Amino acid sequence: MKPRISMITLGVRDLAASIHFYEEGLDFPRMESPPGVAFFTLNGTWLGLYGRDALAEDAQVSKEGEGFPGFSLAHNLASEAEVDQVMAQALAAGATLAKEPQKVFWGGYSGYFKDPDGYLWELAYNPFAWIGPHDD
């Protein structure tokens, strides 16, 4: 197997609001998508948005569950200033601040926001290893 993540799908409560947040607020490029789902390109992978109940039904799991989902999504940036800029953009788009960007124990700089459904996004600058878009 060649390991890779082809798509990340988030189960969302309000599809239209989430589409607006990612497409208009964060400038994610939206792909043509069938009704009831939205896809965005992310430099080598896709982000999918799908109704939370419909996603649970599709996976044949319970739709019940709250609190910390046990994971976060990360967006690595080229500088501390970029972290601050993207955080400001996310907050202006309606995100909730979870952790103010700051120097962190491993030597980098990061902060977290929650999207409209509470999914955590880390914005990080890692001075030791640039991991980010390779086609910019």
Automatic annotation (TrEMBL):
* SUPFAM superfamilies to which the protein is assigned, alphabetical: Glyoxalase/Bleomycin resistance protein/Dihydroxybiphenyl dioxygenase (SSF54593)
Q: How far does the signal peptide extend, from start to end residue?
A: none
InterPro entries according to UniProt: Glyas_Bleomycin-R_OHBP_Dase (IPR029068), Glyas_Fos-R_dOase_dom (IPR004360), VOC_core (IPR037523)
Identify the residues that the record assigns to the VOC domain, covering every copy: 4-126
Top-level lineage group:
Bacteria
The protein's name is VOC family protein
Q: Which organism is it from?
A: Denitromonas halophila
* Biological classification of the source: Bacteria, Pseudomonadati, Pseudomonadota, Betaproteobacteria, Rhodocyclales
